[in-house]
Specification:
Blueprint: E1 6-7, H1 26-31, H2 33-43, E2 48-50, H3 51-60, H4 65-82, H5 104-111, E3 123-125, E4 137-141, E5 144-145, H6 146-157, H7 164-171, E6 173-178, E7 181-186, E8 191-192, E9 200-207, E10 210-221, H8 230-233, E11 244-245, E12 248-253, E13 257-262, E14 265-270, H9 280-299, E15 305-308, E16 315-316, H10 317-327, E17 336-338, H11 342-353, E18 366-368, H12 378-382, E19 385-389, E20 392-396, E21 400-402, H13 405-409, E22 424-428, H14 435-445, E23 450-453, E24 471-473, H15 474-483, H16 488-494, E25 503-505, E26 507-509, E27 528-530, H17 540-548
Parallel strand pairs: 14-15, 15-22, 22-23, 23-27
Antiparallel strand pairs: 1-16, 2-10, 3-8, 3-10, 4-5, 4-9, 6-7, 9-10, 11-12, 12-13, 13-14, 17-26, 18-21, 19-20, 24-25
Helix pairs in contact: 2-3, 4-5, 6-7, 10-14, 15-16
This protein binds 2-acetamido-2-deoxy-beta-D-glucopyranose (9 copies).
Length: 554
């Protein structure tokens, strides 16, 4: 019953080529010598490709205008048909946010006037842990002040949050908890998806007043190779092991969440809501275990808890809804709607007629916010709701809550826990995306205090990014187009070439405290700000101690 419904991002057009060692595109094979060389390396099972070899291959691929036009037209069709934020993205950012308003359709047309380049690779620089560089300050990168270089990169080249502070945090490496361990998260500055213009990058380091340069080559790790994986696992913190983080003791590991005690309070780490690759039984087990973890804290008489949602990339909206209900059984989740277009209307009709249980496009998946009951018909769900967004008149469906009752039926009914907004605090580094954002934004609206860590000095910034609704992708849309005869007139315009993949947010969520405010565009700064230092970057427990200070009743 658990559906794969994802909430990922606000942005945008992601072209992904899956890249495996078997990857040998046929036209590369036959036409292009430079790429022939790359494919031969791949066949040998190499761990990574050289910058120069990769660049030569990219540069040799001729621009195919026909394919570019077809792709762009299909992308436009999908975004116009389904992307919830297409219009509002044209509006100036709310104070606190830093992004360029964008008319995606116009930008896509402009793309056709430029040279098209294939950019589909992870690139990292070839680094090893060099004991001589630990705790050194990076003063310059390629001879420019390091802070400026990272800030500009975060401003122009990272698109995961509308808040520049959050983008800055994710440009740098941080720790996220993974399977029984902590992994390195973020580091988008050094883990590129686009081939850099120069083959190397140089850092000027200040180590106890000794100043020197190091230069690193960019390399292209091959997915699945041993070189690829250690990027995320290379770093180990001496403050963290399987049973403790600093002075905090692990009392239970529930995989999606982890439970610690520190002094007289509890800490719950929520690392993900992502159910990709899990079967229904596993999802049920992880959520059942989460209840066990909370029970253990309650049984120990813990009266205060720090909820750490740092480095949480989101996932399944149902998992998010469930977490909200575990903590606050009597509050609603955020209401949502979807854009009404010819394409989405056709989908709503077909998928409602087919009664695909729980689907975004099935009107039976919702509870009307107006009458607090299910909708009686497709027409009632679609309604006639017009809004002005980005200067345009647009239509959206009637605002509604997702009705999760069927999914929740297979999950444990949580007991009544002793905690309220008076004895919880939320901690994040702003890198709490999509479904994670929906959880913490909702809790903040019932006055759970929020603390964000990192960012720029004296700038209180977002504790969450990209509160949206369900994300669909080009493959799912294609599947529906092939499945339902009545959608066949849309198929010719909306099926993206098999090797391309586009995701887009289809539903937007609204604040409950301020019902006309679309959460995606609403700047919500944390109540308090903390900073990383050499200690807290390696030992999250020192942030937990600081966050605990902000719990209301002591
Ligand atoms: C990388 O380049 C070096 C020399 O520049 C060469 O010896 C090596 O074979 C290349 N390796 C790959 C995987 O391209
Ligand atoms: C360009 O792309 C089109 C559409 O994908 C394809 O039919 C055509 O063969 C391509 N042309 C070249 C020269 O590769
Ligand atoms: C970052 O974005 C800017 C503006 O789009 C672009 O000119 C630059 O090449 C990008 N830099 C990197 C490192 O990708
Ligand atoms: C999240 O990342 C920060 C650094 O940005 C790190 O210090 C912290 O330990 C991480 N927290 C969790 C819970 O993963
Ligand atoms: C580091 O390299 C740059 C040139 O890339 C040079 O200007 C600078 O003097 C070097 N610094 C040291 C300490 O070697
Ligand atoms: C983890 O670290 C704590 C505190 O440093 C120590 O007491 C404990 O024995 C360690 N546990 C393991 C499994 O290494
Ligand atoms: C952990 O506890 C010890 C002993 O109370 C204390 O000296 C140390 O500073 C604590 N560590 C942190 C990170 O708070
Ligand atoms: C949720 O859906 C179930 C049927 O799946 C229905 O019985 C119930 O009334 C709905 N709840 C609300 C509040 O709309
Ligand atoms: C397809 O559309 C026709 C005409 O609108 C309608 O009668 C039929 O029920 C639809 N088929 C399905 C499977 O919804």
């Amino acid at each position: 019953m658990m559906k794969q419904i994802y909430l990922i991002t606000f942005i945008f057009v992601i072209f992904i080529y899956s890249f495996h060692s078997q990857w040998v595109p046929s036209d590369f094979d036959t036409i292009i010598d430079e790429c022939q060389r790359v494919s031969e390396y791949l066949i040998t099972g190499t761990d990574y490709l050289n910058y120069s070899d990769m660049k030569a291959c990219y540069d040799s691929i001729p621009f195919n205008k026909t394919k570019a036009v077809q792709t762009i037209e299909t992308v436009k069709e999908l975004l116009k048909g389904f992307y919830a934020f297409l219009d509002q993205a044209k509006e100036e950012p709310k104070p606190g946010y830093t992004f360029t308003p964008i008319d995606l359709i116009t930008e896509l047309d402009l793309l056709l006037n430029k040279d098209y380049s294939y950019e589909y690779e992870f690139v990292v620089f070839d680094d090893t842990i060099d004991p001589n560089t630990i705790d050194c300050q990076v003063t310059h990168i390629d001879d420019k002040p390091a802070i400026d270089v990272i800030t500009e990169f975060a401003r122009n080249n990272i698109s995961n949050s509308r808040d520049l502070n959050v983008r800055f945090n994710t440009a740098l490496a941080s720790l996220a908890f993974g399977n029984m361990d902590f992994l390195v998260y973020g580091q988008l500055f050094s883990l590129r998806q686009k081939l850099p213009t120069d083959p190397t990058i140089s850092y000027t380091l200040n180590c106890n007043d000794k100043i020197f340069n190091i230069t690193r080559e960019w390399i292209v790790p091959v997915y699945g190779s041993k070189e690829f994986y250690p990027i995320f696992t290379k770093y180990k913190s001496s403050y963290i092991n399987e049973t403790s983080v600093g002075n905090a003791s692990l009392i239970f590991d529930a995989i999606f969440s982890r439970f610690y005690t520190l002094q007289d309070f509890g800490v719950v780490l929520f690392s993900t809501e992502d159910t990709t690759g899990l079967n229904t039984d596993e999802v049920i087990r992880f959520l059942t275990d989460m209840i066990v973890g909370f029970k253990l804290l309650a049984d120990k008489g813990i009266t205060k808890i720090v909820l750490d949602f740092s480095n949480n990339s989101g996932g399944d909206v149902i998992v998010a809804d469930y977490i909200i209900k575990v903590l606050f059984p009597n509050i609603n989740i955020f209401p949502e709607d979807i854009k009404v277009t010819d394409a989405s209307t056709a989908f709503i009709e077909e998928i409602s007629n087919a009664n695909v249980v729980g689907d975004l496009f099935n009107y039976r998946s919702y509870t009307s916010t107006i009458k607090n009951n299910p909708f009686d018909s497709i027409n009632e769900f679609i309604g006639n709701n017009r809004y002005t967004r980005g200067g345009a008149q647009v239509k959206f469906t009637t605002k509604a809550f997702r009705n999760d009752s069927l999914d929740f039926q297979i999950l444990p009914v949580p007991p009544k826990f002793p905690w309220t907004q008076e004895n919880m605090v939320i901690l994040t580094n702003g890198a709490c995306f999509s479904s994670c954002a929906n959880i913490v934004q909702r809790l903040a609206e019932v006055s759970v205090p929020t603390v964000s860590v990192g960012g720029f000095p004296n700038t209180r910034f977002s504790f969450a990014s990209c509160s949206g609704g369900t994300v669909k992708d080009s493959n799912i849309i294609s599947t529906y187009l092939n499945l339902y005869q009545n959608l066949s007139n849309l198929a010719s315009r909306s099926i993206l070439s098999q090797d391309l993949f586009l995701t887009f947010t289809c539903a937007e969520v609204y604040s409950l405290n301020n019902p006309d405010e679309v959460m995606e565009f609403s700047f919500r700064q944390a109540d308090y700000q903390l900073y990383y230092n050499e200690q807290s970057a390696r030992d999250p427990s020192s942030l937990w101690l600081q966050a605990e200070q902000y719990i209301k009743k002591r």
